Amino acid sequence: MLSVLSKLQKGLAKTRSDLVGGIARTLTRSPKIDEAALEELEEVLLSSDVGFETAEELIEQLRSKDRSGLTTTDSVVEIFKAHLIELLDSTVQPPRPLPVPPQVISIIGVNGSGKTTIIGKLAYRLTREKKKVLLAAADTFRAGAIDQLAVWAKRAEADLVSSITGSDPAAVAFDAVRAAKNRQHDILIIDTAGRLHTKTNLMEELKKIHRVIQREIADAPHEVYLVIDATTGQNGLTQARQFAEAAQVTGIILTKLDGTAKGGIVLAITRELGLPIRYVGVGETIDDLELFDASQFVEALFR
Ligand SMILES: Nc1nc2c(ncn2[C@@H]2O[C@H](COP(=O)(O)OP(=O)(O)OP(=O)(O)O)[C@@H](O)[C@H]2O)c(=O)[nH]1
Ligand SMILES: [Mg+2]
Q: How far is the CA of 150 from the centre of ligand 2 (A)?
């Protein structure tokens, strides 16, 4: 079985070969990095979805250096790497003190981004750490959503609070908070819908869920993780912005980094939302979850 790191490296293989290959080609053509070469390098960066500002900054890094020494791909890569790690680390905040249990984590994001799967993986990780975990099936909209979460709860050995399809999601969340308090769970994770009837506004619904939770625990939800499918590229970014405006998002979970994601999107998301990436999902099985590590990620992006 592949380790999470090698899955990440595999998922980023295409981006890596485009990036490193592109840099190598430019240097072969023009061993002295002149203006034309800088432009070419910027194109290479843009094609990996890092976003315009990041590409510009990386090129500025080269421009400001004595370029006579930059003759190998490695020397250019090292400069890029250092700057990217700095950029990714700039959104990292010191871990917040854990609240009095239960800690409430709300998981939001567009439909199909991987919310329910991530909840399964996260719950599994936490129950392995001997935490008592409760899941709330507050996606009452999509048929099958409750059963899907129930399957993950069982696999992860977590408890579940659910109601019937079509019932009020905020009521499910409220019941779950009560249950978590009464039954002394350490952590409550709330699954939410990615899509509702067109009549109902998803953002308003999410706000309502959070408001209702606060009636029971004033400083909850303690974490709001926005799940983003890394393969959706710039589209995912537009959606992410809407969610970040509606809910007090505390961190990003990036999923499907095992697929055909353009890895550079991680940089674009970090810059655009100014939010830390907490976890990455690299597959559909229960242990395909890793804490995000900037150096590890940038390493995987370039080798
Ligand atoms: N390759 C890969 N597939 C994933 C990953 N995470 C989730 N998936 C798949 O993506 C699909 C959608 O995942 P869900 O967890 O149901 O997504 P969701 O956000 O809960 O979707 P809705 O409930 O419809 O809003 C499923 O087929 C998952 O198996 C991942 O990290 N890698
Ligand atoms: Mg779901």
A: 11
Which CATH homologous superfamily contains domain 103-302? Answer: P-loop containing nucleotide triphosphate hydrolases (3.40.50.300)
CB of residue 276 inside a 6 A radius of ligand 1: no
Which residues make beta-bridge pairs with 190? 106, 136
Give the side-chain half-sphere CA count within 13 A for 166: 0
CA of 140 from ligand 1 middle (Å) equals 17
CATH class, range 4-89: mainly alpha
pTM score above 0.85: yes
Q: Which residues surround ligand 2, an ion (CB under 5 A)?
A: 115-116
pLDDT at 1: 62
- By the 8 A CB rule, do 141 and 195 touch? yes
Pairwise CA distance, residues 57 & 52, whole Å: 9
Q: Encode pLDDT of 188-244 as tens digits.
A: 999 999 886 666 688 999 999 999 999 999 999 999 999 999 888 777 888 888 898
User: Nearest ligand, CA of residue 7?
Assistant: 1
User: Which residue carries 């315009």 as its tokens?
Assistant: 52
Ligand 1 binding pocket includes 194 (Cβ within 6 Å): yes
Which of the listed residues 117, 121, 135 should we mutate to test ligand 1's pocket, taking the one with most ligand atoms within 8 A of CB?
A: 117
pLDDT (0 to 100) of residue 156: 97
Lookup result for tokens 């990003």: 252
Q: Where are the domains of the chain?
A: 4-89, 103-302
